[in-house]
Amino acid sequence: MSEIIIGIDLGTTNSEVAVVENGKVTIIEDQGDKMLPSFVGISDNNELLVGESAKNQYILYPERSIKSIKRKMGEDSKINMAGQDYSPQEISAIILKRLKAIAEAYLKQSVSKAVITVPAYFSDTQRQATREAGEIAGLEVMRIINEPTAAALSYETAHKAHKKILVYDLGGGTFDVSVVGVEDDVVEVLASHGNNQLGGDDFDAKIIEHILQHLDEKYPGLDVSQSRKAIARIGRAAELAKCNLSDNPFAAIQEEYLEEHDGAPVHLSLELSRNDYEVMIDDYVEETLEAVHTALTGAKLTVSDIDEILLVGGSTRTPLIGERLQEKFKLQPHAEIDPDLCVAAGAAIQGAMIAGSDVSAVLVDITPYTYGTSALGNLGGMMYEHKYIPIIHKNTPLPVSKSEVFYTLYDGQKVVEVDVYQGEATDALDNIEIGMFNIEGLSDVPEGNEIMVKLDLDLDGVLNVKAWEKCTGLEKSIVIENAIARFAGAELETARQRIEHIFDTKEQTADDGFIEAHSQTEASEITRQHQAVIQAEALVEKTQRMLDQASNDDREDMQRLMGILKQAIADNDITGLQEPEAELADILYYLES
Ligand code: AMP
């Protein structure tokens, strides 16, 4: 048996330890937790606290607790904890020693060698301090490797030659982006950039600000900043809401008996929408994209040179981040391996490579397909009734639970039809319909009634679909067994027939759809009649865009027809739209081909 070399991700916020056993990477858990908060403290009974317990006492007793020691690595300074001074190496060593003990308890043998990761920008002094911390903890540090290199190693991608990978790492308090080159199994950081004062904590701070503002409006004169306990609870509630918003369009923020004000208890209760939250953090996300640009420039590469994007760090679970990167690079970023754990996994792989043991790719259970529903939405510039709205994306680790909000189309809509599809096409009808149901008896309210749809997919491929009216909680759900089954060949045909049968046997009303969340602003405009107007407007817009490509004659016709359409739109003359639309469609078709 070859020797054991553990892999350690010594993070600013959290640390993890992993090992390769029989060719497989395991992230080692400590009492069910794979992450050890990078906090150290001394309790009021003079006990040494490491991890969660130290994190819990941090806000209440900061003088007896230390966090983010990684930021001080390499500095010639002392940090005071409960009246005693420590070097940054000593504090890091306490965390490393705990990780070593966690590994030993799991492996049931002593461990003396480790690979430890550091940010790509760490100087020699900072690397040396990390090495010393390992030695103080009783570990022989076999190698210090860069975090983006470890992330690349944890993905199979690293074994394929000639690739340029962008590693986007947003943790709790730091942001790093690196361009990594992979050439015949050699992984090298080509350029790296970042901001070591930007991370998920800043996102929390925005929500905290929002909560404090809400409390101020609701309880004028209340000053919670005086109560460490209340501030600690608000901070935790904000972080929880942030994490919930990664999977759901709304998050409830609730804390009972937060404080007393004028002799009465103060209860915190508010709802935050993902849309509002995304506005709060937009500037931060933009800042990270500028850093991405700087890293690319540093590597003398452009967006189109990047073959893959890897997401690292807990904050990359924020959907806005993946969406922005996808927009910029036209590549779906990889998040199959838990973004909190892939650096430790890569360090363990490096350890196994040094020890001369075989390593297979990190195995993760992911969904090979996208699942979603359909709604009225903008597809290729036109409003279309069956636009596919993905809810669980392909390659998401399992189990997964995601929800989205949709809106009813017209006043007094009593029923919505929920169609569930598996597939990747933007037109839902080109995907495979794997289930459908109606929720009936909705409230008699104007259009725009919020309907939530939640998809839960487990490791056995069982898909639970639930839809509910947000204002009343009225709900309906179905269970689709075997949702991950590969529908191929004959099975595909059987599935199609099954669905056709359902179509034939149920009364289908095209009106009972709903509208996608992203088109919420359009929702107020849209009744069935308005849909025609919107289509016409989209056609006018498209025509306008294509004017440059047209010959003089065509351009005159296009302008004339646009004029007629605009007039019909202004008059809400739905029948008057048809003729000019047909003529324009012919011209555009000709221009496009
Ligand atoms: P790391 O330093 O990589 O462990 O990342 C920790 C940060 O990730 C903290 O700010 C967490 O609040 C944040 N985080 C963890 N899970 C999520 C999530 N589901 N959505 C958004 N942020 C998250």
UniProtKB/TrEMBL annotation:
What InterPro entries does the record point to? ATPase_NBD, Heat_shock_70_CS, HSP70_peptide-bd_sf, Hsp_70_fam
- One Pfam annotation, family name? HSP70
Keyword vocabulary terms for this entry: ATP-binding, Chaperone, Nucleotide-binding
- Could you state a single Gene Ontology molecular function term? ATP-dependent protein folding chaperone
Which PROSITE patterns does this UniProt record tie to the protein? HSP70_1 (PS00297), HSP70_2 (PS00329)
Q: Which domain of life is it from?
A: Bacteria
Q: What SUPFAM superfamilies does the record point to?
A: Actin-like ATPase domain, Heat shock protein 70kD (HSP70), peptide-binding domain
Entry keyword annotation includes ATP-binding: yes
Q: Which PANTHER family match?
A: HEAT SHOCK PROTEIN 70KDA
* Family named by the database record: Belongs to the heat shock protein 70 family.
The identity of this protein, by name, is Chaperone protein DnaK
- Native source organism of the sequence: Candidatus Venteria ishoeyi
Lineage from the top down?
Bacteria, Pseudomonadati, Pseudomonadota, Gammaproteobacteria, Thiotrichales
What gene name is listed for this protein? dnaK_2
